[in-house]
Amino acid sequence: MDFDLTDDQRLLTDSVARLLSDSYSFEQRKALLKTEQGWSETLWQKYAELGLTGLPIAEEHGGFGGGAVDVMLLMQAFGRHLVLEPYLATVVLGGTALRLAGDAAQQGEILPEVAAGSLRLAFAHYERQARYDITDVLTTAKPQGGGFLLEGAKSVVLHGATADKLVVSARTGGSRAEAEGLSLFLVDADAPGLARRGYRLRDGTEAAELSLSAVQVPREALLGLQDAALPVIQRVVEAGIAATAAEVIGAMETMHAMTLDYLKTRVQFGKPIGENQALQHRAAEMLVAMEQGRSMAMLATMSLEEEDAAERARHISMAKVGVGQAGRFVSQQAVQLHGGIGMTEEYAVGHFFRRVMVIEHLFGDTATHLDRLAEQVA
Amino acid sequence: MDLRFTPEEAAFREEVRAFIRDHLPREIRERMRLGHPPRKQDTIAWMRILNERGWAAYSWPTEWGGPGWTPIQRMIFLEENLSAPAPELLSFNITMLGPVLIQFGTEAQKKHFLPRAANLDDWWCQGFSEPGAGSDLASLRTAAVRDGDHYVVNGQKIWTSTAHNADWCFCLVRTNPQAAKRQDGISFLLIDLRTPGIEVRPIISIDGSHHLNEVFFTDVRVPVGNLVGEENKGWSVAKYLLGNERTGIARLGKSKERVRFAKEVAKEVRMNGRPLIEDKAFRQRVAQIEVEMKALEITQLRVVSAYAKAGGNRPDPLSSVLKIKGTELLQASSELVMDVGGPQAMPVWQQELAALANEPAIGPDWAPQMAPNYLMLRAASIYGGTNEIQKNILNKAVLGL
């Protein structure tokens, strides 16, 4: 057991903290949100220069060869500043799919570009009718002309409208909600028949609805095994859960710090409101929740490399529940203790609140994962 | 960063588990599994078995008979002991008095009291709280007045756990009522409970048990050689005692054992015509507790690792997180298993007595003990610094409010 960071990890967190404190003030972030794209191409290139876009990518593909802990530390730092760039979609979700399922040619073609910051990915898996059911896929891929013809729709695809390539799941066999018969495909953003309708989520990040009508892809677009992509999809989702759990920890840290600051400076009845024990105890309860959540985010990260799939899924579900509940409590209390100012668009705490809210509703919400755990009680 | 135990730590866990399996008397284990608190003779018997193995004084340095374990080994040992389930080590002797004497005691005090405490030749209790001094401990009034080679003690202690079993009591007494700061007039005294002038009166708890007492001191003569540390410096001794290593404070092994037991007995009782264990609401309740236990397990590892790293000399304010969540989970698990018992958990029933009279059992043999356990564990968030006081500590030490 060891909770220490390596020298490299300390270096990483220091340099990321420096970059973000220079370039991600609340005002700077608000300005980014007002642009059409909603995030910064310039900063994306800076991430690439710092090696962040290649952080978990192997050195042979131009990456840094880092592990899950490195990504956790980075996502936590991103969470503290509510970073808007498509790191989760490109590096965590798309990158994990490529690393787990890509053949040498696919990896060699795509991963170096991801590491260099010149190619962005999105993971187009969930569909509107599926809610959080990972096997509920209606999109089909039928063999045609040596390749496949994709037909269907994908919903709330993170950064789906700006990605250069999409990792799309589709049925090559089986029927709705069956575990067998799922396959993954790499689809170019400009493929004929692919329509993307971009919008913002409540936290200001970008997502899209995709419709695929007769999208023709070559045989080489198949990513991983035909009909047997579910384990890969599962692991991509798990990587997403671990990464966003770390992001929530960072967001909770900022919200908690802002709340403490407010309790110390806001004066009512002639004294700082933080002198009221009711509020002191609430702040302590937020700390307890945050630390319990932090432990769970660590569990999620450490579990990503667990080989026993059932054990891995169980720990990931526990972490999703633990972080989901902690995040909800801390963010609700952060707004409550700020009072009216916490309700305003002009104040940062509400932006953190919304990011945590959105994350809780990705990759299976608290109730979904608690239900999965309940099914396994024995 | 790595959350896994090292192979050495895993092997250590196996060693502890095997020892407990092979040496914990079957009768004690069975009583505890059914939810009974250990009897005095159970605790003494088990402590002596552990002491023979060199494990009773598990947190003491080797110089004074401890095994020289790392904080992580101690945590593993405590967890295995609790989840066996075996009687808990008498904390008054091992985690309170022992470290205090090692830090502040004279050579004579150490040589005399430490081996006896480890072997439970002396059963110690803690004389801190008074009717007017609960969470506000520094307002205590029990007076000790110097008279030649003795202190003469007059006053009253309350909530004194196990005083009726005890041979000795370590007490906070006021030796200087004139001190400008209340904390500066307090001393730490070791009092032999057989001394004339001491009266122990029982307080019966809401679970029906006799665990707590009032202790009255009337002109009790205590040799000055029983003073620990300097006169009027007892507050720092007490602070050391309370802030001392709190590896075991979460008592996670106990909660884990209770949840395991609840799942086992939930197969025997029914809900809507099916075994309770198949009920969705019940399963979600269990899952929720298991999630929180997992989080606490990792938080505990973080605290213990940080403690080990700091050279084991600085209490982590996050211990208060362990106390708060640990006691919440103890309470939640005791509620869970009581609810499994249902109506059969409600009778006041002593199966042993009923068996003597050839009376048939009212319900499953484990059920009657579940309500008193639940009742008794309401105290968990009160003793050792109430959970509200823990939040005050977090405010002072971490939040700076």
TrEMBL record, chain A:
Domain Acyl-CoA dehydrogenase/oxidase N-terminal: 6-117
Pfam families membership: Acyl-CoA_dh_1, Acyl-CoA_dh_M, Acyl-CoA_dh_N
SUPFAM superfamilies according to UniProt: Acyl-CoA dehydrogenase C-terminal domain-like (SSF47203), Acyl-CoA dehydrogenase NM domain-like (SSF56645)
Domain Acyl-CoA dehydrogenase/oxidase C-terminal: 234-377
Cofactor(s) needed for function: FAD
Keyword Oxidoreductase: yes
CDD domains cross-referenced by the UniProt entry: ACAD
Domain Acyl-CoA oxidase/dehydrogenase middle, first and last residues per copy: 122-209
Family: Belongs to the acyl-CoA dehydrogenase family.
Domain of life of the native organism: Bacteria
Keyword rRNA-binding: no
Taxonomic source organism: Paracraurococcus ruber
Keywords: FAD, Flavoprotein, Oxidoreductase
The protein, known as: Pimeloyl-CoA dehydrogenase small subunit
From TrEMBL, chain B:
Residue span, Acyl-CoA dehydrogenase/oxidase N-terminal domain: 6-119
Domain of life of the organism encoding this protein: Bacteria
Names of required cofactors: FAD
SUPFAM superfamilies listed in its UniProt record: Acyl-CoA dehydrogenase C-terminal domain-like (SSF47203), Acyl-CoA dehydrogenase NM domain-like (SSF56645)
All copies of domain Acyl-CoA oxidase/dehydrogenase middle, residue ranges: 125-220
Domain Acyl-CoA dehydrogenase/oxidase C-terminal: 232-398
The keyword Oxidoreductase is assigned to this record: yes
Keywords: FAD, Flavoprotein, Oxidoreductase
Keyword Flavoprotein: yes
Similarity field: Belongs to the acyl-CoA dehydrogenase family.
Protein's recorded name: Pimeloyl-CoA dehydrogenase large subunit
Organism taxonomic ancestry: Bacteria, Pseudomonadati, Pseudomonadota, Alphaproteobacteria, Acetobacterales
